[in-house]
Request: fold
Amino acid sequence: MGRPLDAAALKEAAETRIRNLRAEGWDWLIDAFAEEEGKCPTWMSDRIRATDLEQMILWQHARLDWTTTPWDLVVNAQPPALIVVGDLEDPEHLITEAVAQMHDATEVRLDGVGHINAFLASDRQLPHVEAFLARH
Reply:
């Protein structure tokens, strides 16, 4: 999630994603993960590739008409939220800013990992998940 975008920037980002997905398929996303933090585990890239690419493209097409940004959707969420983020995926601490604006959110920042490796670090996440669930 990035900073709030105006409608024109949001549209441009969606159009770029559509072009990249049409040209490169899921490799575009998998290669971006690899550039940021190393090779995506084979089981994960296999699951990504098994997902219907056309559904992702259709979702991006739907975003062309959005007037609400992803930032707005997140910060206005009402249920309690636990947000786990790898510090390498959010060097500007945008997630920290979003969590501060949310109704009832807790951020857990995992040092030394990006998006994929934070997702895979279940041993590091589990104590935080258990504590969050016990509170809510």
About this structure: The chain has a mean pLDDT of 90. The two ends are 25 Å apart (CA to CA). The chain has two domains: 7-63, 77-135.
